[in-house]
Amino acid sequence: MASFKDLTQNRELKLGTYIGEFATPGIGQILKSTGCQYAFVDMEHSGFSFETVKAVLRNLHDAGIASLVRPPSKAYHHLARACDVGAQGIIPPMLGTVEEAKACLDAINYVPDGNRGCALNIAHDDYHPASVLDGLAAANRKTCLTPLIETADGIENCDAIAAIDGVDCLWIGHFDLSASLGIPGDFENPLFTDAIDAVVAAGAKHNKSVGRLVGSPEEGAALFKQGFDFICYLGDMWLLQRALNEGFSAIKASVGDGAVAGGS
Q1: What pairs with residue 210 in β-bridges?
Q2: Does a structural domain hold residue 64?
Q3: Which residue from 17, 27, 85, 179 puts its CA 20 to 30 A from 68's CA?
């Protein structure tokens, strides 16, 4: 299967979705049937435990779906543990400086590239026996850092962050970014659109991928044309709500108000 890091090696369209509610054992095969390439698994806002995420990642990877995990924070124990339970890509929240990005790289990589505590032949390497040096090197090759740019500091430093060796993708957290800029939810404001342009430019300058959650196919297509190659289309609970709302509305419209079952 293509890992998340593998997917960052080109600027072709990559389609994925967000998982923050449904930790079903079937999630990997369900997503595979749609052509989904990766899943953004959220721990910051979902309430998922590491044990839950470990099971979700196994289901995803067995189905050939790449994974990007947002841990609860940028703390070492959250970053390293997310890697240990199998996350291919790590997306630390509220990453705003070069120093923070380097600290995250140090936490998710083994020596000589970092100082992550060593644990081999466990979930992250598919329980595959290997020599210590081979195991450490293999883990470092596939571990991927995707800074979540969602603060004014992140925008100010996005070019320098994108320049760091080991940063593979930049991701926009659009709601938090708009709030940090003092314009919560105002995505048409020039402050917000200029910030987006800065991140896209940083990605293009340093040949790094750029990603974002989108609310519609039209928005996804427009952002791809703008320079986003990772398009994350909605998420599990929102897609269910949308599908049910559309279906219920269509049935009600066809039946009409006040209709009785079996009536003409």
Answers
A1: 170
A2: yes
A3: 179
Between 73 and 257, whose confidence is greater? 73
The pLDDT tens digits of the residues spanning 195-205 come to 999 999 999 99
Total Cβ atoms within 10 A of residue 121: 12
Burial 167-206 (b: 16+ CB within 10 A, else e): bbbbbbbbebbbbbbebeeeeeeeebeebbebbbebbeeb
Helix (H) or strand (E) holding 252: helix 236-255
| Total domains in the fold of the chain | 1
C-beta of residue 34 within 8 angstroms of C-beta of residue 251? no
- Beta bridge partner(s), residue 233: 214
The pLDDT of residue 213 is above 80: yes
- Looking at the DSSP bridge assignments, the partners of residue 18 are 40, 235
- Domain with residue 223: its CATH number is 3.20.20.60
Parent domain of 184: 4-239
Question: Closest Cα to residue 136, out of 152, 150, 124, 154?
Answer: 124
> In 3-state terms, what secondary structure has residue 235?
strand
Residue 244 lies in a domain: no
The answer to whether residue 227 is domain-embedded is: yes
pLDDT value of position 257: 83
Query: What is the Cα–Cα distance from 161 to 232, expressed in whole angstroms?
Result: 22
- Please give the positions annotated as active site: 45
